[in-house]
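TASK: fixed-backbone design
INPUT:
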């Protein structure tokens, strides 16, 4: 892995047009990738997401721009603040991790996750959570290197499984 020295990271400002365009473009690219479901973002999501994110103080995003490439947006992480009832403290779920193909393997995700951790600590969060597809071994390797592990309370009960139900 090599670091991208010209990388600029920031917490996205949902009212900033350049930040929102970068967020939408990166998220759409991720949605089109097999790891994101291989379908583009809907027109509805593209139109409504800027206002929806801005209206939710429990959401935050981190963006990465490559200044050597005229400020090209190359990375995005969307986060959702939740709450741990056992710890009685906030937690932060790392919901989307996106790095453009041209910048993978250069430390972009690791640097963005470092900023996410700083922002989570500033919110008083007790932990970070995330879900990753079984087939995404490069991401799993990164997350484990950064201290993430599969979730379990009692080894006899096994590891937690991420599930969902559409409403």
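OUTPUT:
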């Amino acid at each position: 892995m090599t670091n991208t020295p010209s990388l600029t990271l920031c917490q996205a400002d949902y009212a900033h047009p350049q930040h929102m365009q970068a967020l939408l473009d990166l998220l759409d690219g991720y949605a089109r990738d097999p790891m994101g479901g291989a379908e583009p973002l809907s027109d509805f999501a593209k139109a409504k997401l800027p206002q929806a994110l801005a209206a939710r103080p429990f959401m935050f995003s981190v963006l990465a721009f490559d200044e050597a490439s005229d400020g090209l947006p190359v990375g995005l992480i969307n986060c959702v603040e939740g709450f741990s009832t056992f710890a009685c403290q906030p937690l932060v779920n790392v919901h989307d991790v996106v790095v453009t193909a041209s910048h993978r393997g250069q430390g972009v995700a690791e640097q963005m996750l470092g900023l996410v951790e700083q922002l989570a600590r500033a919110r008083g969060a007790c932990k970070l959570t995330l879900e990753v597809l079984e087939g995404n071994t490069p991401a799993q390797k990164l997350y484990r290197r950064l201290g993430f592990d599969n979730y379990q309370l009692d080894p006899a009960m096994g590891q937690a499984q991420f599930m969902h139900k559409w409403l």
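COMMENT: The longest strand covers residues 72-84.
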